[in-house]
Amino acid sequence: MNRRLVEGAQRAGLAVAASAAWPEPGDGPPPALAGFVHSAFNPLVAAVSGRCIERHRESAPTRTATTAVVLVSAVGDAASAAHVAGAVDHGGRVGPLFFFQSVPNAVAGHVAARWSLTGPVVCVGDTAAGLDVARLLLADGDADEALLVELRHDTAGRETATAVVVAEQGGLA
Amino acid sequence: MTARRGTEDVVLTGAAALSAFGRGMTALAAGLDAGRPAFGPVERFDVSGRRVGVAAATPGAPVLAAELADLLDEACDEAKLSTAQRAAAPLFLATHGDPELARVPVADRLRHGSTAFAVALAVAAGLGGAVRAYTTACVAASTAIADAAALVARGEVDRIVVAGAYLVEPDQFALFDAGRALAVDGQVRPFSAGRRGLLLGDGGGAFVVESAAAARERGAPVLARLAGWGRAGDAYHPCQPHPEGRGMARAIAAALERAGVAPEAVGYVNAHGSGTPQSDTAEAAALYAVFGGHAAEVPVSSTKALHGQALEASGVLELAVTVHALSTGRLPVNAGYTGPDDGCRLNLVLEPRTGDPGYALTLNAAFGGANTALLVGAA
After folding, report:
1. Model-level pTM?
2. Which residue among B4, B101, B137 places its CB closest to the CB of A78?
3. Which helix (H) or strand (E) holds B92?
4. Is A32 helix (H, G, I), strand (E, B) or coil?
5. Is B137 in contact with A96 (Cβ distance < 8 A)?
6. Pairing between β-strand A67-73 and β-strand A121-124 as defined by DSSP bridges
7. Burial degree of A61 (CB within 10 A; 0-12, 13-18, 19+)
8. How far apart are CA B336 and CA A91, in angstroms?
9. What are phi and psi of A22, to 5 degrees?
10. CB–CB of A150/A162 below 8 Å?
11. Of A33, A36, A90, B3, which has the fewest CB atoms closer than 10 Å, so is most exposed?
12. Which residues have C-beta within 8 Å of that of residue A135, sequence separation ≥ 6?
């Protein structure tokens, strides 16, 4: 269910400590996320991140590490951006919550705060970039491990999410 | 956690800038030296329904892709990159995304992704290396610079071209207005009592980040050294900084550690200084956490009070400002100041000042608790 991102991380020379997807069998829509509205983008990031971090911590409950959050998305929260553009073009009201979710950083910051992930927060536009950013943050010592989350969109605008926790080879021992 | 870096020295060999003061480093320098804020009524689009109608914008209706193309050409030309060297150079682009994305049909959105936008720019500029797009809000460009420096220092590549630009447009303006983030008094007052928020501004920049050895070998001019870099998160809130500036403090400490430079060697700080109450206080706390007593002595200014908040492009525009301060010794003013704030007891540059900073630090922070620090040394 998350083979693509796991194999990509392995090809990048990274050790994969945990992985998750949303949806997985039996999943419905992701739970609503307080403070975020309109689209599935932010709830999906939060849901898949929580699932992946919980699996990681179940397997390494006493580990303390500085964890980066790297969020990959080609178009970000395009549905919310389109909603705002429509309001601007037609004189509608732009709700204040759209300001707070206007960049992918916001939900990445939510994930970081929820799970005490104190490493860098980085958002990029494609998987290869995300994997290389994660690799570099680990090599540079700004993080011990990285939560890499990818939001994928299909041509109908539907979104799915995958996530891995990665570390340098030998870094999970 | 120990900040590491590769063994190659990292330098900047080409620079270009765009701001409301005009196109080019000369226009930026003149605006900084004059010390007059570039804010004025927004005429580019209708702001009649907004609480605030002010921004720092260049005249007319500039086009983002065209401005980025000019910035890339200017920086590559200054670095004296040959066609072959351009063809081998990666492009790291800091961007909010393709400006058309929000208004195309759903089925076309994937063709308007941020990486696709960056690839089109790279092709047009003759940059043939790997392309990536950073969309990390107000630390997008500074993160791209840090990552480029890290890759060059590790010897993975000789040079990387980093660029970013933001032009004031109606969607982000409406969002910032709706979020009550814009300063209703029409001025940005970083670290000052009575500060009311930020104002948006056109901004952009491009840099050639290169290994010192490669630059030396081809006889390229060196504008400045990128001595250190750091990035760290607050893990505190989706859009508020940690009140003690914890992530920013760790980013600053990592930049100093990579450079092997003591806090006392830093002679100027170009602060993030957004002009919002919480962010400025958190940043001042971070400086005290790392600098100790030197935080009260080192000259600090946020030039957002002059050129505005350039969002994803802030890191490259403010790196250009920092290089200007370092190379000329003319420290830009922290405009808009009305009086001290107990939470921001810094040595603000309130009048034009000259000096030899030695090392200068440029800081950025963003939603998500993302923080970066870049430490720049004289060439």
Report:
1. 0.97
2. B101
3. strand B91-94
4. coil
5. no
6. parallel
7. exposed
8. 33
9. -140, 115
10. yes
11. A90
12. A12, A13, A14
**Residue B186, helix vs strand vs coil:** coil
ipTM of the complex: 0.96
Q: What is the pLDDT of residues B211-268, one digit of tens each?
A: 999 999 999 999 999 999 999 999 999 999 999 999 999 999 999 999 999 999 999 9
Amino acid occupying residue A154 = D
Work out the angle at residue A88's Cα, subtended by the Cα atoms of residues A83 and A92, and round it to the nearest 5 degrees.
80
| Each residue's pLDDT tens digit, A4-35 | 999 999 999 999 999 999 999 999 999 999 99
3-state SS, residue A152: strand
How many Cβ pairs closer than 8 A exist between chain A and B?
209
- Token pair, residue A10, equals 């392995």
Interchain contact, B113 vs A125, CB within 8 Å: yes
Q: Which residue has the tokens 């689009």?
A: B45
Helix, strand or coil, per DSSP, at residue B90: coil
Give A20 to chain B, closest Cα distance, Å: 21
**Strands B370-378 vs B359-366: parallel, antiparallel or unpaired:** antiparallel
Mention every residue, 6+ apart, whose C-beta is less than 8 A from residue B48.
none
| Residue B113 · residue B345 · CB < 8 Å | no
State the Cα–Cα distance between residues B261 and B269, nearest whole angstrom.
Answer: 14
Residues, chain B, total? Answer: 379
Indicate the pairing of strand B91-94 with strand B159-166: parallel
Of B101, B133, B368, the CB nearest to A106: B368
